[in-house]
Amino acid sequence: MGDIAFTKTFVQHYAFIMKTLKKSHESDTMSNRIVHISVQLFSNEELARQVTEECQLLDIMVTVLLYMMESCLIKSELQDEENSLHVVVNCGEALLKNNTYWPLVSDFINILSHQSVAKKFLEDHGLLVTWMNFVSFFQGMNLNKRELNEHVEFESQTYYAAFAAELEACAQPMWGLLSHCKVRETQEYTRNVVRYCLEALQDWFDAINFVDEPAPNQVTFHLPLHRYFAMFLSKAVKCQELDLDTILPDQEMLMKLMIHPLQIQASLSEIHSNMWVRNGLQIKGQAMTYVQSHFCNSMIDPDIYLLQVCASRLDPDYFISSVFERFKVVDLLTMASQHQNTILDSEHERSMLEGALTFLVLLLSLRLHLGMTDDEILRAEMVAQLCMNDRTHSSLLDLIPENPNPKSGIIPGSLSFESVLSAVADFKAPVFEPGGSMQQGMYTPKAEVWDKEFDPVMVILRTVYRRDVQSAMDRYTAFLKQSGKFPGNPWPPYKKRTPLHPSYRGLLKLLHCKTLHIVLFTLLYKILMDHQNLSEHVLCMVLYLIELGLENSPEQESDEEESAGGQERCHDSWFPGSNLVSNMRHFINYVRVRVPETAPEVKREPPASTSSDGLASSQSSRRKSLQRENSGTAQVFSLVAERRKKFQEIINRNTSEANQVVRPKTSMKWSAPGATPQLTTAILEVKESILSLLIKLHHKLSGKQNSYYPPWLDDVDVLIHPEIPRYSHGDGMTAVERILLKAAVQSRLNKRIIEEICRKVTPPVPPKKISSAEKKTLDKEERRQKARERQQKLLAEFASRQKSFMETAMDVESPDADIAMEVATSEQHVSEAIYDCVICGQSGPSTEDRPTGLVVLLQASSVLGQCRNSTEPKRLPTTEEEQIYPWDTCAALHDVRLTTLQRYFKDSSCLQAVSIGWEGGVYVQTCGHTLHIDCHKSYMESLRNDQVLQGFSVDKGEFTCPLCRQFANSVLPCYPGNNMERSVWQSHSNKCMQDLVQEVEELQEQLGTFPVSISSETNLSKEMESVMKDIKSTTQKKYTDYSKTPGSPDNDFLFMYSVARTNLELELVHRGGNLCSGGASTAGKRSCLNQLFHVLAMHMRLYSIDSAYNPWRKLTQPLQDKNSELISEELPEVPVLYRDVSSLLLIQILTMPQPLHREHFTCIVKVLFTLLYTQALAALSLKWSAEDRVAWKESGALKKNTSSGEKSWEVLLGHVISELSKGKIYEEGESEELAVVLVNGVSVECYLQQFCLPFLRITSLLQHHLYGGDLPSCQEDEEFTVLASCLGLLPSFQSAHQFTSASCLDWPVPAFDMISQWCSELVSFADRHPDQVKALLIQEPKWDLPRLLQLPENYNTIFQYYHRKTCSVCTKVPKDPAVCLVCGTFVCLKGLCCKQQSYCECVLHSQNCGAGTGIFLLINASVIIIIRGHRFCLWGSVYLDAHGEEDRDLRRGKPLYICKERYKVLEQQWVSHTFDHINKRWGPHYNGL
Question: For the chain: N or C, fewer Cβ within 10 A?
C-alpha cells in the first residue's frame, strides 16, 4: 500500500511541481529527476487506474498543463490581426524553448498508454473539451509573414520550439489515444473526439474572424486541431468501420477546413520557388522539418489526408479552382500568349504552376490513409527512400516515418521491417574506394523494384531536399540504361495505385470535372504553342493527371451519347459533360480570351460562333447578352467567379436553414489591385480537342511529322491487353502513346477519332508572332540558357579531366599505375632531361643557375623497424597473460648489434659497419611533378600570405602540389643530367676484373678533388644543401646520433647512406618483399631515388675516408703486415666479416664521383658478393656439430686443387671451417640448434642463396634506379639466378639444374688468401672476447613484411578488456583509453595525467613508436585515429555491425565485427606511407592527444 499512498501524495503536489519547474533555471536536471519518479509511479497500470479513479489524476494533469501554457500566451496575428480573439503560445518563451513542459507531457503520455485510463479520458466529455482547449493554444503558433521588401534583420530560430511542441504536446498524446481506437467497439470514443475537435475548430474560425479567404502572405505550419480531426477520421474508417458521412461536418465547415492545410501546400511551393528568401534560411528549415521523417506522419500526411477528405465531399470545380487560386497561377491559365499576373512575378510562375499540378497529382495518387495496409505503406516508404539513395540499415530505420509515440506499439525494426527490406533491397557489402572514402554496408533497390515499384509521387512527398528527386530519377535512368529497357532520358513512370477505400470514391470526381479539363486543355495548347513559363515538368504532370483520369473513369460511357442533342447541352461551358473519356474527343473551335490591348490576338474580327475562355478574366464577365448571342458555344469562364458563386450558394443554403444573419460577402480586399492594365476581348481560332493536341504533342516531342501511328491498326491485341511492358518505361512520347491507347481502349469513338486525326496529315504549327519586347526577353532567356549549358559542359569536361588525372595520379594502391611523368626516362635518348614546371608551365632542363626540383614529401618512418623474423603476426593482447615485448623486432635487433659493436670496436668503423634508419628513417616520396625552385619559393610566399586556414602548416614548409594537390613538404633538386651518357655507361666492357678494381680504387682516391660545381656556391648546390637540412630535420635527433662522440662527422655519414638504404628497403617492402614481379619501380615513374642519390652523394663526398681505412683495400688486397693492428692501444676496426654488405655497397657507390660507370658498379657488386658469400659460409659452419664440421672440412680439402675450386662452395666451406678452427670460435659450447637438415648439398645450396638474396634485391633495385632498365620478373625459386644474371654476376646463364650459387663468385685475388685474411680478424677477436664471436656474426636475415597487430573478430573482446584497464603510467582508468595498433601500447588519449613537457601521451607515443606516425584505436568510440607529425585525422572504423555500418562512439550498441578488407587498407596505407594523400580531413592536434 506504500506505493499507492506515495503516488497519491505525489499527485496532490503535482501543481506545485509544475511551479517549481517553471521557476527552475536548470530545468534539465530538475525535470529529469521528476520524470524518474513519475515513470515508475505511472507505468504500473493497476496503480495508475486507481489513482485516476480516486484522485482525479487526469483532471489534475490536464489542468496543470493548461495552466502551465497559459503563462506564455500571446494574441494570434493570423488572419484578422486587429480583431482576433485567438491566443497562441509564444514559441520564444523559455518554457517552450527549453522543453520545460516535457516531464508533464511525458507523464500524460505514459498514463494514456494504459487502456483503462485512456478509456476514462475518451469517455469524459469535460476532459475532452479541456484538452481540445489546450491543443488550440498551439493552433496557428509561430506565424510566418512573408517579407516583401527588406531581408529580415534577425532570423528567429523559434521554429525548433514550435515543431517540438506540436510533436510532443499534441501529436504524441494523439497517437497514444489513437492506439486505443483499434476496434469496432471503440466507435463512441472517435465520435466524442471528432465532436469536440470540430467545436474547437469552429471556435477557432470565429476567434480569428475567418470567412472564406485566407490572409495573403502568411502561413503557419501548426494546425494540431486539423490533424486530430484528420487522424481520428482515418482511424474511424480504417479500423472501426464507421460511416464517414455520419461524422463529417457540413459543406461550409469542410470549405473552411481545407483552407489552411491548402495554404501550407501552396506556401511550400512558394518557399521552394524562392519567394520567401527575404525571410532567411529558417523558413526553408520549416518547410523541410514539416516533411522530415520524424514529423511527416504527424504533419504533412494528416494535412494531405484532410484535403483528400474535403475534396471527396466538396464540389470538384470549386476545389480545383481553389487550388489554382491558392497557388496564384489563375492568370497564367489563359489560351492567350500574353497575360498579366497581378499577384505573382513572372519568374515564379513556372515553379508555382509546377507546384500546383504536382500537388494535385499527390492529392489524387496518395493512398496512405485511403486504403493501403500497414505493410504496403512500410514497403512504399522503404522503396521511396531506397530509390533516392542507397541507404545504410540505421539511416533507413531513421528515415521510415514511425509512430512518434513510443507507447503506441508500432515499432520499426520489428519483423516486418526486416522482411520487407529483404524483399525490396539487395545488400552491398562495405567496400573501400581508392579515393579514400570508406563505404558503409548499403542497401540498394532490387532490379524488379525499379522496374515495377519505383513511385516518383511517393519520392516527391518524402524528399526533404529537392535534389533527392533528381537523384532518384538519375538512378532510375541508370537502371533503365543498364538493363537495356530504355536508352534515353526517361520520364517518371506512371504507377498503378492501390484501390480507393469506398468511403473516399468521391475524390475521383476531381478528375472528372470541367474545370480540370479546361485547365488541362489550356496547358496542352500552351505547351504546343510554346508559350512562356511552361516546362517539361508541367507537361509531365498534365499527362499524369490525364492518365489518372483515364485509369479511374466512372463506369464505361455509352458511345451513343454523342447524339444531336448532345451538342445543345454545352452552351455555358467548354465541354459537354464531366467525363474525361468523352471530353477528350470534344473539339473546341473558337475561344474568347481577355488580353492586353498590345497582344497579337487582338487584330482579328470574331467569327459568328465563338467559345470564350478568359480563365483570367475579371469578376464581372458573366454578361447575359453574350450568352444569348452565341448560344451554341462556350462562355468566358472565370475560375474565381465560379468559386465565389459556389461558396455563396453554400453559405446561403446553410444560413437559411439555421435562420441566421446572412454573412457579408467577403470583401474584395485581396482580389486584383485596381491598377490592372486595360484588357480587351479577342477571339482565338483553336479547332483542337485534347486528343488532337496529344497527337500533335507527340509529333512535337519526336521532332518528326506523323510520328504517331495507332498501334492497334497493326495488332488488335493491344486493345485487349493494354498493359504492355514496352509502355511502362520511357519518355514523353511513350506517355502520350500510353494515354492514347488507354483512351482508345475505353471508347470506340475515341479510337475512331484518333484514327481520323492521324489520317489528316497535320500541317506544321505556324510560327507565332512575337512582339519585339517579348523577343528580347526570349533572346535573353535563350542566351542565358546557352551560356548555362556551355558552362555546364566546360565544368563537366574539367571534372572529367581532373577525374582521369586523379585516377592515374592518386592510385597509390596499385603498383602498375604508370603515369607518363615529367621526369624524362632513359628510354628517350635526348641530350638532356627536360622538366615541366607545374607553376609557370615552362619546360626546360634543370640547370646550375635555375634548378628544377621534384615535389617531395619527407617523412620519418619506423615501419621497417616493425618487421619481425616470424611469419606469425602478433595479436593485440586481450587478456593479462598476452603481452607484447618489442625485443624481436628488426629495429631492436639492429640496435643491440650496433651497441655491441661499439663496445669492442673503434667507433668510426662501427658507424660504417651497419645501417641505421630502421626506426626514424627518412622516407622520400614524390607525386612526380616538377617545378622551378624559384617558382616554388614564390608559391610558398603566396601560401604564407593566404590567410585561409589550410590543413597544413606553411611555416613548416608544408604545401600541396600545385597540380595534383598531393601533400608535400620539400623540393628535391634534379641533378642536371645528361641522358646520352647513360646509355654509354650501360655497355658492358671487356676489361678484366683486376683493371676494374684498380680503376675503382683510383676513383676513390679522387675524393679530395671535387667537380667545380660543388666547391663553388651555385644555386643548385645551395638547394641541395637546404634539402639535406630538410632531410635531417625530418627525423628526431635520437635517430641520427649514434656516435659516442656527439656531433662527429661519422654520424652524418652514417645517416646519409642510411637514408638511401631506408628508401630501397621500403620500396622492397612495397613490392611484397621480393622482386619476383619485376617491372618498373613501385610508383611507376614516380620514384625520386635517382635524384635522392645525387643529393646524398654530393654530401657524402664532402667527407674524406682515410685511405688506410678504406674498406675497398681490405676487400681486394691481401695485407702484408698482420701484426700492426694488435700493437695500437685503441680499439680495433670492425672485422670485415662483421660488416653489413649492403651498407658497404652504399658507402662505395655514394662516395664515388657521379655519375658512375656501369662497369665500375658491377665490379663493386662482384667484390662485395665474395664477402657476402664468405659471411654466409661462416654463419653456416656455426650451425653444425663438431663431427659434421670435420666431415665437411675434409670433403672440401679433397677438391681444393681442382680447376674450379674457387667456385665450389664445398671447397670454400672447408677452407672457412679450417681457418676459423684456428681460434676459439667453435669452442664456446656446442651449438644448441643442431641443424641436421643441412647435411645434404641441396639444402646447403638453398641456405646460401637465401642468405645472399636480400643483398641481391637491394643491389638490383639500386642498379634499376641508377641505370634504368626494367627488372625481370620471375618465379620465386629462380629469383636468385635471375637477379644474379641481371647484376652481371653470372658470366653466362647456365642451365638451372647444375647451377650453384658459388658459380657467381668472381674473386679479384686468390680466394683462399682473402678468406684466410678475413677469418684471421675473427680469430684474433675471439682470443680476447670468445663469448661475443658468434653473436656478432651476421646470421641469416629472414624478415617478414611489417604488419599491424592482428585484431580479434569481435569488438566486444577488445572493449571488455581495455575499457576498465588501468594505465601503466598513472595507474588510473583513462577517460579516453586508446591502444597503439603497431605495438599494442595502452595509452590515455588527451589524458593530462600522462602529459610530459606539454606532450600528451598519444602524441608522445607516436614519436617514440612510429617516429611521428601513430595509429590508435579509440576503445570507447571504435574508431581509429592517425597522428602524423603535428596533424591528426579520424581514419574511420575497422569494426562494422552485421549490416556493414560503423558505430562511431558506440551509440547504437550493436555487436561489431572486424572488417578485414578495411584493416588491410589501413595496413597498406601505413606501409606505403600514404596516410597524408588518401585521408583528406586533417587538423592540428597541438600535442593535446
Answer: N
1450 Ramachandran zone, left/alpha/beta (phi>0; psi -120 to 50): left
User: d(Cα 696, Cα 761) in Å, to the nearest integer?
Assistant: 10
Res 625: pLDDT: 29
950: its cell numbers: 589550410
C-alpha span between 693 and 1023 (Å, rounded): 78
Count of other CB atoms within 10 angstroms of residue 1023:
21
C-alpha cell of 197? 475537435
Instruction: Name the grid cell of 432.
Output: 573501400
Place of cell 604564407: 944
Nearest one of 920, 922, 921, 912 to 1054, comparing CA atoms: 912
Contact 544, 497 (CB under 8 A): no
For residues 900 and 856, give the distance between their C-alpha atoms in angstroms, rounded to a whole number. Answer: 36
List residues bridging with 861 in a β-sheet. Answer: 921
Residue 1319 DSSP code: H
> pLDDT tens-digit profile of 813-841?
433 333 333 333 333 344 567 888 988 88
Q: Say which residues have a Cβ less than 8 Å from residue 319's Cβ, sequence separation at least 6.
A: 258, 310, 311, 510
Task: Name which of 244, 132, 243 is nearest 177 in CA terms.
Answer: 132
Q: How many Cα atoms occupy the beta-carbon half-sphere of 588 within 13 Å?
A: 29
Of 350-359, 749-758, 1119-1128, 1435-1444, give the range with the top mean pLDDT: 350-359
C-alpha span between 1056 and 1 (Å, rounded): 87
* Measured distance CA(1069)–CA(206) in Å, rounded: 83
Distances (CA, A) of 227 to 223, 314, 631: 6, 19, 47
- Those residues with Cβ within 8 angstroms of residue 110's Cβ, 6 or more apart along the chain or in another chain: 38, 39, 42, 43, 407
The CA angle 180-126-89, to the nearest 5 degrees, is 85
Residue keyed to cell 498534365: 542
Cα pseudo-dihedral 242, 247, 251, 255, rounded to 10: -90
Q: If you ran DSSP here, which 8-state letter would residue 168 be given? A: I
DSSP class of residue 501 equals: P
Q: Which of 761, 763, 720, 769 is nearest to 741 (CA)?
A: 720
3-state secondary structure of 649: helix
**Euclidean distance between CA atoms 383 and 880, whole angstroms:** 50
CB 1060 within 8 A of CB 1028: no
Closest-CA residue to 593 (of 529, 643, 636) = 636
Q: Is the pTM for the entire model greater than 0.85?
A: no
Grid cell in block for residue 1272 = 625481370
What does the DSSP 8-state code read for residue 1219?
Answer: H
As given in the structure block, the three cell numbers for residue 691 are 486528343
The closest alpha carbon to 1473, from 1092, 889, 1070, belongs to 1070
Residue the block writes with cell 504533419: 299
**pLDDT for the residue 989:** 54
The dihedral formed by the CA atoms of 970, 976, 978 and 984, expressed in degrees to the nearest 10: -70
d(CA 233, CA 242): 9
pLDDT at 482: 93
By the 8 A CB rule, do 697 and 524 touch? yes
Angle between helices 732-746 and 536-551 (to 10 degrees): 20
Asked if 177 and 170 touch (Cβ cutoff 8 Å), the reply is no
Beta strands (DSSP E) in 104-219 are: 144-145, 218-219
Residue 869, phi then psi, degrees to nearest 5? -95, 30
Q: For residues 935 and 1023, what is the distance between their CA atoms, to the nearest angstrom?
A: 13
Residue-averaged pLDDT of the chain: 80
Return d(Cα 229, Cα 1113) in angstroms, integer.
104
Distance CA 1285, CA 1301 (A): 11
Q: Is the dihedral of CA 376, 381, 382, 387 positive or negative?
A: positive
* CA separation, residue 1287 to residues 240, 278, 990, 1160, 1166 (Å): 91, 76, 16, 12, 9
Q: Which amino acid would we find at residue 1270?
A: D
